[in-house]
Amino acid sequence: MKHAHGLHEVHLDSAGFYAQAAWGGYPWSAEAYIFGLCAAYPWKRFSSLDLCVEEEVARDRIEVRERVCKTVALNLLCAKLSEDAGIGDRLMPVIQGSLPEDYIRCYDSLSGMIGEKRIIGVGSMCRRKTSGDDGIIAVVEALHRELPPGVRIHLFGLKSDGAEAVADLDDRVASIDSQAYGVTARKEANERRKLDPAFSKSNSYVAGIMANWYRGQMCRMGAPRSRTSQPGFVFPASEAAPRTVLEALELHARRQINDLIEQGELDHDQIVSHHTLQGWMADWSLPHGVHSADPYISQDQLPPELREAHAGWEHEESATWLVEDDLHSHVTMGVA
Asked: Domains along the chain?
């Protein structure tokens, strides 16, 4: 932090993606992060801890939902600790998701903490395509429709095409960041070392690359190419339908665990393993004649205490628990 002396302002990222890639998660506690780092320097803003959901981290919708719930819990914990440290006004909450609806749900769970006027971070942007139902434009436009006017967003790791695509939403997008200049500096330095093995990728060299990159971005965003706003999307549930009664029970167990994590009843670093699910389901009794290995057909195969919750979840997801192959057979059966 000694190198930050004299800078106009400095912002702190919690390094969620790097921590996941390098160590499989944060090697430091929320307490160590807030009291040991965030409170140790007058950052303009510092990000809440969060759990990214890029494809190489969250392999399916179940893992995405689990990590979004844990992100909610981490935000609430960081908010409490920041208030205790007297720096709560500089905390930037971070929302996570894969689909636009994930980000909206994450925001809704944190809206009481966020309030009507604040800057919030939007994670898992750096490897996201620009267009499409789950692209940068779709996510930002969904947030623009749903968030209060006073809540603005910071986009982490936005690539050039993405930044240009949302340039006309500068009333909503407060700021962006990117490591694209760092990648360029590393590539160019490696090329120069082929001719000059002693060449050093010094701080001043990287700063020059960053300044050129910044000027280029400002030009692109100052005169962005026109685009057509994407309409609102209705997203079907994209997690696979349970094939057996056991898989349906596991989905219920995971949802209950995620709800408790989000509510702070379970720790944000709770490991949801196979043994965890087995223990969670131990007290559930299936109806007479139903076995866990049976093909899953309807909620009538579930324990009575789960059926009401199951009906609510089906309504929440537009009653679609179809994967692509099931959808084809479903339509064929309907025509027949």
From this structure: 2-222 (3.20.20.105), 245-335 (no CATH)
